[in-house]
Specification:
There is one protein chain. By secondary structure, the protein is of the alpha+beta class. The protein has a single domain, classed as 2-Layer Sandwich (HIT family, subunit A), CATH 3.30.428.10. The chain is built from two helices and five strands; from the N terminus they run H-E-E-E-H-E-E. Strands 1-2-3-5-4 form a five-stranded antiparallel sheet, covered by helices on one side. It is globular and about 40 Å long. The N and C termini lie far apart (31 Å).
């Protein structure tokens, strides 16, 4: 199977503006931002989407969400708020089949989204 765009970023084959990295996740600015602050945080282990995650991914998924909150705080979004978005499948807007969480902030968000 060929590498996803995100796997190529993780492997440094494609440049990205990285804001956080550890052994489990990588966070970087979205190249097509939907908000003044738009960062993606991805697990380094390639999981196609949340619906395909398994029990063995539980620790990675928890780490992903905790680090998403930490990155949002690092970006100055804690006080005003932010939105975390995980898309699953084409009708949800998933464009890269590698689980990722969008960290969106820097402006008021409306409800419902989309």
């Amino acid at each position: 199977m060929s590498k996803t765009l995100f796997q190529k970023i993780i492997d440094r084959e494609i440049p990205a503006r990285i804001v956080y990295e550890d052994d489990t996740v990588l966070a970087f600015h979205d190249v097509n931002p939907a908000a003044p602050t738009h960062v993606l945080i991805v697990p380094k282990k390639p999981v196609p989407r949340i619906a395909e995650a398994s029990e063995s991914d539980q620790q990675t998924l928890g780490h992903l969400l905790l680090k998403a909150a930490a990155v949002a705080a690092q970006l100055g979004l804690r006080e005003t708020g932010y939105r975390l978005v995980i898309n699953n499948g084409p009708h949800a807007g998933e464009s890269v089949p590698h689980l990722h969480c969008h960290i969106l902030g820097g402006r008021p968000m409306s409800w419902p989204p989309g």
